[in-house]
Amino acid sequence: MIKLSFKRRTDQSKFIHIKILFFSILFSLFITGLLFYASGFNPFYVYKEIIRGAFFSKHALTEVIVKTSPLILCSLSVCFAAIMMLWNIGAEGQLYIGAFFASFIALKLEWIPSELKLPLMFLAGFCGGALWALIPALLKIISNVNDIISTLLLNYIAILFVNYFIYGPWKGKDGFPYTHFFPGDCHLPLFFDSRIHLGVFLSLIIAVIVYIVINKTTFGYEMKIIGCNKEAALYAGMDITKNIVIVMLISGGIAGICGMFEVSGIIHRLQPDISSSYGYTGIIIAWLCKRKIGLIILVSFLFGAMEVGGDAMQITMHIPAAIVRIFEAALLFSILGLEIFSNYILTFQRENR
Amino acid sequence: MVLTTVLEIKNITKKFPDVIACNNISFSLNRAEVHSLLGENGAGKTTLMNILSGRIKPDSGNIYIDTESGCEPLLQKININSPRDAHKYGIGMVYQHFMLVENLTVFENVIFSLKNLPFLIYRKDIIKKIEEISREYNLEVELDRKIYELSVGEQQKVEILKVLISEAKILILDEPTSILTPMETKKLFLIINKLKANGHSIIFISHKLNEVLQISDRISVLKKGKLVATLTISDVNKETLSALMFDEKIEPIHTPPYSNRGLEQNRIEKSIVINNLTLKNIRNVTSVKNFNLKIKRGEIFGLAGVSGNGQDEIAKALFGLTKIEDGEILINYENISNNSTSDIIKKAVTLIPPDRIKTGCVSDCTVTENVLLRFYKSNSFSRFNFIKKKESEVFTEKLIKDYKVVCSGTRIPLSHLSGGNIQKLILARELATKPSVIIAVNPTHGLDLASSNFIHQLLIDSSNHNITIFLISEDLDEILAISNRFGVIFKGELMGIFNNENIDIKKIGNLMLGIKNDQALI
Predict the structure, then answer these.
(1) Which residues of B150-164 are buried (b: 16+ CB within 10 A; e: fewer)?
(2) Which residue in chain A has the smallest CA separation from B341?
(3) CA of B266: how far to CAs of A250, B263, B315, B463, in Å?
(4) Predicted ipTM?
(5) Chain B partners within 8 Å of A237 (Cβ)
(6) Cβ–Cβ < 8 Å for A227, A84
(7) How close B387 gets to chain A, by Cα (Å)?
(8) What is the pTM of this model?
């Protein structure tokens, strides 16, 4: 009789996470492939179209890069908090509030000198997101409210709050649910004759800064220790309360900056649906990448490509772009399922009878 | 009496990544026998018993059991794949760390173990059954009390009750005496003898020679995963067993008594002064009340007592980890009551926490990161809030070398180290902070003799260098071995303070149980 059993790995394989990622992608492609087949398309043809739609023109490629930037920021936001075992499911809401704060500067404070407007909007975006993340942080400290629930629920409040202004006091003259366009001095500069804006580069810089903070500083060290073992952190004299507040402020702030980039770099006004659930996709990416900032940039790029390819697919073949979401979900599921292999190996044993 | 085998283990092997926990072990158990498994910590006793109770599956080897199917005793090969299987075959285990649900009552805990628990629970019938058993074996416990309200000894009774009510015929007791006072141990032995008389078979796991000699019919000695010998009680004495257990002759450290230790008795400088301390435990119940203590500089002061009598709270209060309700603590004549932990650390106080895995270290982080726990803010290891990686590595390597910590590198996760080596590393780290006061809580709990000796020697050396050591321990032997003076605590109250010479163990044991007599010299 052949027996299957899981054995604990004696050696920690370095590439195991990459391998898991690879197999998960393959598996998810298979699942979505079945869906394409069921809707009457040759899956290989569809994948070819998606890849063509995402990479095979300058326009497509720049669009992918434009989509990558918010994904990087949102997954950084989630990842930063996750190091301290705080689950920030609220990047989506913080993004909206950040966008709202930035829009306030752009629309309502016209007396501010032009040169100062963009920096102030950046700051406002950060503060908006940080403020929104402060609520769950305080709730957690004062009465130990679960951060997953509070951050998630605040998303709905944030989006409806912003919508109220869009449909109400801030509605533009033509009566549609969006604000006026921002004045020109509130637009992030564009590059390469495309929609690539300054924020794309800034998000890479932010990624580097986050990497350094996490891996090289005493603050990052404290975060890691608190995340791994609270008791030990208290015993080492660390102030957990203070750290929860700071980490949530920064995590929310990063998501808020993302909102500012979206309104100031791309849409140039405040409107509903400024985020195509970047905050939620960020959770998936952060989970896939396990604190590896380099990997976050790469995976964000791939997810960005899927967004753009998915849109192209919808236009050329009339397959709903929502299938991309199914792919993302299948990917997360298979990664979670395969994670056991990072610590265990499957062995086949012949049992002697 | 005819000996019938009820359980037989043949050629059991279990490998873990770094170690072979059980190497080709064969072992048998007779009806109505107490068979002791003797061995150092890490010899493989607990792994073997976890295999029997279904918590771990062996890599190879077979288990046979007397299934009592016919009138002939017939050993049948069985597979124990889960604790449920063990339960089915009548094997019951009393774990060293109790498997009780703290927030449930005794009754609720016990009924989990009933075979064929009906969907509707008829309380009266079950209570009757429990009472029958508890009367027979002197296991009386109030059934409606919550587990956390019970003393450790009572909790152990509940564990045994659980096993008996499951109609187990084979009982495994894993280090049952490690948490008991001498008196309670005596009571436990009475229970074991009664069980034996009623035809139960018992596997008694211990590393204490005296107890094993007292209670067993046969003794098997384990060393480094191998079964060295199985002997009948009439063939052994302390020396032969000790020779089998240890490679070389190791004797526990026992320092000469108080007066010979070069510490002037009339020294007046006080290192720790505790005045009228009142503390609450995590359940917000007052656990220490009006506690007073003065500890001299450079002495090892022991605090003996059964666990859960307020020792943990006192240690936490000294280190700023719990709120002081009333009273004050002075360290080196400075009031540190309700100061933050980081402020207390700055006063050269250090704590060796009771639970090294949960509190003393971060097992998922690397060895270096664990060493940094005390130093990451100091200028030698960080500049402008950036950690100096290289200096930290070099420093960690030095600690590892100086304190003979066995580990394969500074960048491996701490969880790859054995318990003894983790404790050595923690001690190395704490001593490197150059403390003036060390609070050590159960510093050698669960360690083998060699590691224990190493740690005791370090503590003695430190005290010789005028470092004050407050040794809080559940292990009375440890306190008697190395302390200059010691106190006994019961229910948060100091029962007496003694100079460590000519100690009447029985009296101390009584005090640990709260039985006072007036001969204590304070």
Answers:
(1) bbbbbbbbbbbbbbb
(2) A237
(3) 58, 9, 26, 17
(4) 0.78
(5) 320, 340-342, 344-345
(6) yes
(7) 5
(8) 0.78
